[in-house]
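Q: I'm writing a short explainer about Antitoxin for a general audience and would like to include a description of its predicted shape. Could you first generate the structure from this sequence?
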Amino acid sequence: MHDAPDAFATTVAERGAAPDAKASINLRIDAGTRQLIDEAAQALGKTRTEFMVESARSLAIDVILDQRLFLLDPARYDAFLQVLDNPPAPGPKLRKLVKRTPAWEK
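A: Of course. Here's the predicted structure. Afterward I'll give you a sentence or two in plain language.
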């Protein structure tokens, strides 16, 4: 965490494991960012909380999907499977790396 005035600090308090249980997130943000969020929320007719939760949730889904899901047309999918099924032979750099003693064993 930074000590700068525009630092962003997050704490999460969890309350139980029930599927519909609510948790709180406390944020400290600079005044300019808060004003920007408030203006955007107002433009959409939402509360600050609604706007922030919906925005964060949407971005979180995009990030997770970007890391886990990609779509290919049939030709590219077949090419992708071909590469997975027939990886290239290890080159000299990979052979050298495999022979090296790991740092945690030194």
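A: For your explainer, you could say: The mean pLDDT is 84.
Q: Perfect, that's easy to follow.
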